[in-house]
Specification:
Arc Repressor Mutant, subunit A, two-stranded antiparallel sheet, mainly alpha, 4 helices
Length: about 90
């Protein structure tokens, strides 16, 4: 793999598949140094993918679980629709 975009996507796949992995493991799997790995992590974060890094003996990187988004039929959605439809009556 020589293209950074391919490696960034491969990093995302690795994190999703493994759940958590150390920087050394990820760098070795992607055949890059740890500094390059940190740039790839930053790229994922810039794209809005929440990455959590933890330090220490059992530390590593993992994709944080996204906060659930409101469903279209929730209370706030209905309230907003009522306000939008008020002018059309």
């Amino acid at each position: 793999m020589s293209r950074p975009t391919v490696r960034v996507l491969a990093l995302l796949e690795l994190l999703q598949a493994r759940g958590s992995a150390s920087g050394a493991e990820l760098a070795q799997a992607l055949e890059v140094d740890r500094r390059t790995l940190r740039r790839y992590i930053a790229t994922l974060e810039e794209l809005g993918i929440p990455i959590m890094a933890s330090q220490g003996r059992f530390g590593g990187y993992q994709v944080r679980r996204a906060q659930p988004r409101p469903r279209p039929g929730d209370a706030r959605g209905r309230q907003h629709q009522g306000q939008a439809g008020a002018g059309h009556a």
